[in-house]
């Protein structure tokens, strides 16, 4: 299986090369030249497998330059019960007769990015070896909170890698700071920046672009890489959990193999829902993909009109991981639907210059067969958390609530008797203050452990171990620097 670029059809690379490189030199994203197929028999076979086997099977269809032994070993290590608390890292929970919640947040940081970031480092380490690169990979991340911690956990003690995270000292929550500064691992480095997120991000961009940094690290046997959400190695693990969720529904006799289901996903960067689209195209019987947005509803408008326009107000919502105006993974969908990299390149150029483009009639029509969409206001998010807790005795976080609400709106418009899998992307304790306010109607200032304890006192939901452990965790990273000293701090942390 070869990969091409969304912006240059002459590109042909192996999966390992696509993962090691991250982004194509033409600025496009790597996409598989064809989408592999799963038959009904494959699904039956997978019903009898555990999660790591299912994941290795699905991922192996895309990464055919990795052996099954390599993939299975990586998946066993990534999705171990020690890290996810159970044999099944992403169980489903039925909250209404036709409505199932796919819990993607049982990993070490209690949010769905663990599902990808636990596996990516292993895929990357193998890719680098296959490409004949002997240098250690140094992953640099600037974070506004959650991604940094998920990357630290994912790369922690993965051989051949080092991970360095910069965060704005006053730009992350108390809990997020604690999560990062208590990070274990011989190969991890964390540094607070005296500045905001943009300062941290610009500093990292400068480091990536500096020839002298590259040279000095190379002399020390190291090379810089990024692990951001456009790497194919982050998307492919996500396809596996939609396949596995379907298998769980069949194995649990909720549906027959072959029955159609719907999938509803709270979306920001379009990565998670695109993974569900790949699962559908592989042959998983998914009827509609329902794209759920918060008040930043650029995708709702795009999917319903074909016009993408990022020129609009930006809202800071209670579902911050979806506060995004440029959904970078959408480029992959546009490529697959048009099959024309020049067309995609044109849209992306327009997005860069005017922030707006309109897709062809052909793409609009294809979108309307696969997708439905909707958005959820702040009031509706809180009301949904409250209603789901009261009526279904299920506590969901703010991001998940967006999807639950959008699906209920979809149902009120469409007479659709199919079962739905709603992707749940964070544990409610991760956003305890908003969830507490939604359940009780009372605002509670202060945040931190006190609010988690209060939420715990009024619900059956347990505080997840990775968050409660932070109460007594030892601070291991005390690095702090000015934005202009990020490079020297990098050399110091790496010993280069
Ligand atoms: C990242 C994130 C999302 C959005 O996922 P995309 O792949 O960017 O669409 C939703 N919920 C949570 C909790 C997240 O961390």
Summarize the model shown.
The protein has 496 residues and is an alpha/beta fold.
Plain-language structure description:
Helix 3 crosses helix 4 (about 70-80), helix 3 (about 50-60) packs across helix 12 (about 230-250) and helix 18 crosses helix 19. Helices cover about 45% and strands about 15% of the residues. The chain has about 500 residues and is α/β, with parallel strands linked by helices. The model has no long low-confidence stretch (mean pLDDT about 95). The strands form 4 sheets. It has a 6-stranded mixed β-sheet, sandwiched between helices. The protein is built from 23 helices and 16 strands. The chain binds pyridoxal-5'-phosphate (PLP). The site of pyridoxal-5'-phosphate has 16 residues, from helix 13.
Residues in β-strands, percent: 15-25%
* Total strand segments: 16
Mean pLDDT: 95
Q: Note the overall shape.
A: globular
Query: If helices are DSSP runs of H or I spanning 4 or more residues, what is the number of helices?
Result: 23
Structural class: alpha/beta
Write out the distinct hetero groups bound to the structure.
pyridoxal-5'-phosphate
């Amino acid at each position: 299986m070869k990969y091409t670029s969304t912006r240059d059809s002459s590109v042909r690379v192996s999966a390992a090369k696509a993962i090691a490189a991250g982004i194509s030199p033409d600025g496009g994203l790597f996409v598989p030249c064809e989408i592999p197929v799963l038959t009904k028999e494959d699904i039956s076979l997978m019903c009898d497998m555990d999660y790591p086997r299912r994941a290795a099977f699905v991922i192996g269809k895309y990464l055919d330059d990795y052996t099954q032994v390599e993939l299975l070993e990586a998946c066993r290590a990534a999705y171990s019960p020690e890290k996810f608390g159970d044999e099944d890292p992403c169980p489903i929970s039925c909250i209404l007769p036709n409505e199932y919640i796919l819990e993607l947040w049982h990993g070490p940081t209690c949010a769905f990015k663990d599902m990808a970031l636990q596996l990516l480092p292993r895929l990357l380490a193998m890719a680098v070896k296959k490409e004949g690169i002997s240098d250690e990979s140094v992953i640099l991340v600037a974070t506004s909170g959650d991604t940094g911690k998920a990357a630290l956990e994912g790369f922690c003690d993965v051989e051949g890698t080092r991970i360095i995270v910069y965060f704005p000292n006053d730009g992350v929550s108390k809990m997020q700071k604690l999560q990062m500064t208590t990070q274990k691992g011989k190969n991890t480095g964390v540094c607070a920046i005296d500045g905001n997120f943009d300062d941290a991000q610009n500093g990292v961009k400068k480091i990536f672009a500096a020839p002298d940094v590259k040279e000095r690290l190379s002399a020390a046997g190291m090379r810089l890489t990024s692990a951001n959400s456009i790497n194919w190695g982050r998307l492919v693990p996500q396809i596996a959990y939609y396949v596995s969720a379907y298998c769980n529904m069949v194995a649990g006799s909720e549906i027959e193999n072959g029955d159609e289901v719907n999938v509803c996903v709270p979306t920001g960067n379009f990565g998670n829902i695109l993974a569900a689209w790949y699962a559908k195209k592989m042959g998983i019987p998914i009827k509609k993909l329902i794209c759920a947005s918060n008040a930043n509803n650029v995708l709702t408008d795009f999917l319903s009109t074909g016009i993408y326009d990022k020129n609009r107000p930006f809202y800071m919502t209670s579902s911050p991981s979806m506060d995004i105006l440029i959904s970078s993974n959408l480029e992959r969908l546009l490529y697959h639907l048009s099959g024309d990299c020049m067309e995609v390149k044109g849209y992306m150029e327009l997005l860069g210059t005017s922030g707006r483009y309109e897709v062809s009639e052909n793409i609009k029509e294809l979108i309307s067969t696969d997708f439905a969409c909707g958005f959820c206001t702040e009031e509706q998010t809180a009301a949904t958390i409250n209603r789901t807790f009261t009526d279904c005795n299920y506590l969901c976080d703010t991001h998940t609530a967006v999807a639950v609400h959008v699906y209920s709106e979809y149902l009120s418009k469409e007479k659709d008797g199919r079962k739905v899998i709603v992707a749940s992307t964070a544990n409610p304790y991760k956003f305890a203050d908003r969830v507490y306010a939604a359940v009780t109607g009372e605002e509670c200032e202060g945040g931190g452990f006190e609010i988690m304890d209060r939420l715990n006192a009024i619900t059956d939901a347990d505080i997840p171990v990775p968050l409660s452990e932070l109460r007594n965790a030892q601070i291991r990273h005390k690095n702090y620097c000015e934005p202009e000293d990020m490079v020297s701090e990098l050399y110091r942390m790496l010993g280069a």
